[in-house]
Amino acid sequence: MQDWSKTSAATQQVGVLLFDGFSNHCLANTVEPLRAANMLSGRPLYDWQFLALGSGVVTSSSGLQVAPHQALSQAQGDMLVVMPSYGFQEHSGWKTQSALRAAKRRFKSLIGMDTGSWLLAEAGLLDHHRATIHWEELTGFSERFPEIDVVRERYVIDRNRITCSGAMAAFDLVTHMIGRDQGQALALEVAQLFMTRESARSHTGGAGPASTFVNKALAIMQENLEQPLSVPEVARRAGRTQKVLESRMRADLGATPATVYRRLRLNLARKLVMETDLPVAEIALRSGYDDPSAMTRAFRTEFGRSPRALRR
């Protein structure tokens, strides 16, 4: 069962190793969910730095230039994200392999984004692990590295080696890790912020029937915040029984449908408190509470302070 809500004390240090030809899309889908998690939680859960093998500017496939914070040889942390994307073959060779092998001792986890899996594999860092890569490279990857258990998945987590198939899957992976490390409540909120329903993907990144059903129930809840439905009605509209809905949400999100629904409504209330001048009574109505006092009590329990205190 997933954890619905938990607290991580230490800030996780993330290094993003960029190569010329990296994908802007992949970079944004990696970093933006981390930024959102910090913003929504009000705590520095993640800190990231852009790295390069040398000290010069790195240029993306579309011409975006990024000045690295420091060279890979000087960096250490919890996660190293390797992101070459296009033209990755040009970056293979003994210099890259040596740098990645040395970095293994300074980072707890290594993540190959897009074609980053190939560079990790060439350095021998994926031997005897399950792994994936951008699906256009999957056949060649499997033939080139027979010692790796290559699978066609959106992303794969095998111990402290993580591989991801592409830019869209990068968002799924990072959201999954936020849920794993910080609780599914925050992961769901991040997914909401980016207007995606894909907030309950499985560990391997593929949305199976159970996750599809949970996502449908979440969408129904999201569409009915001002006038909340009963849990049995949500289950009926999603095409399952209440018992099945309860079971699947506990398994996928670590919370009951009632708990998840309340969080969605209170997230809306918090957004209205922070971004509008609406009175608390009006905010309560818009988030499905007839009684402003009841909404205030729930708000304080969920977020640790009252709407008026947050607005101040």
Can you give a write-up of this model?
This is HTH-type transcriptional regulator CdhR. InterPro entries: Class_I_gatase-like (IPR029062), Homeodomain-like_sf (IPR009057), HTH_AraC (IPR018060), INH-QAR (IPR052158). Keywords: Transcription, Transcription regulation. The protein is an alpha/beta fold and 312 residues long. It folds into 2 domains: 12-176, 3-Layer(aba) Sandwich (Rossmann fold), CATH 3.40.50; 208-312, Arc Repressor Mutant, subunit A (Orthogonal Bundle). It is 46% helix and 15% strand. The chain is built from 13 helices and 11 strands. Strand 8 (130-131), helix 4 (138-144) and strand 9 (149-150) form a beta-alpha-beta unit. The protein is elongated.
- Roughly what is the average pLDDT, rounded to an integer? 93
Radius of gyration: 21 Å
CATH superfamily of the largest domain: Class I glutamine amidotransferase (GATase) domain
CATH architecture descriptor of the largest domain: 3-Layer(aba) Sandwich
User: Largest sheet at a glance?
Assistant: 7 strands, mixed
The counted number of beta strands is: 11
Strand content: 5-15%
Shape: elongated
- Helix and strand content put the structural class at alpha/beta
| Helix percent band | 40-55%
Order of strands across the widest beta sheet? 5-2-1-6-7-11-10
Q: Cα distance, first to last residue?
A: 37 Å
Indicate the CATH topology of the largest domain: Rossmann fold
Number of helices: 13
Query: What series of H and E elements makes up the topology?
Result: EHEEEEEHEHEHEEEHHHHHHHHH
Contiguous runs where pLDDT drops below 50 for at least 5 residues: 198-209
Protein name: HTH-type transcriptional regulator CdhR
Domain HTH araC/xylS-type: 215-312
InterPro entries: Class_I_gatase-like, Homeodomain-like_sf, HTH_AraC, INH-QAR
Keywords: Transcription, Transcription regulation
